Amino acid sequence: MTRSTSAPQPRERCGWCGTLEDYCHYHDHEWGFPVDDDRRLFEKLCLEGFQSGLSWLTILRKREAFRSAFANFEINKVARFTEHDVERLLGDASIVRHRGKIEAAINNAQCAKELLKTESSLAAYFWKFEPDPKSRPKTLTAEVLQGMTTCPEAVALSKDLKKRGWKFVGPTTMYALMQAMGLVNDHREGCWTRAEVQRARKAFKVPK
Prior knowledge:
Layout: H1 21-29, H2 38-51, H3 56-61, H4 63-69, H5 75-79, H6 83-90, H7 99-115, H8 122-127, H9 142-146, H10 152-163, H11 171-180, H12 192-203
Keywords: Glycosidase, Hydrolase, Metal-binding, Zinc
Binding site for Zn(2+): 14, 27, 187, 191
EC number: 3.2.2.20
């Protein structure tokens, strides 16, 4: 018997992650899987703000440095940051040194504390804006996804957060948050992770 010497076929993925190992790992194990942890949601919201004008890969590779600089994105701790912390962060070359984005992260932690006075959790608040699956395109090809930069629910979320005083929370940023935290499954048709995310979403209990 002759053994096949052909190499195993690579898994099909969404085109945006390319072939870089760290990007593929993020795509395969994080992006699109539903999240109900307040710390992770707040971290992602902050990092999406820092990403503005940059690539997500840049932020992903600095994520551990951001966690160290921002007290692991613990809302109560970041909310207590002072001008001294702003200056400290502006001098930290391991993160993105942008005063407006740094101050926005601190501001948003303070806003999150206010929001939690009326909401059971940050997760419960964000998941109220989950799009109805019936409103989503039936076939998510790469071409369809390329043209999807926001949705009505992301616009509504952005408006509500801005009304509450949050910063760097535009509709496109909020849609990126929804994609990453599993409020929508935007893995394209043919991507092997799409089915994994669907299974995770079915088992997920939406926080109330």
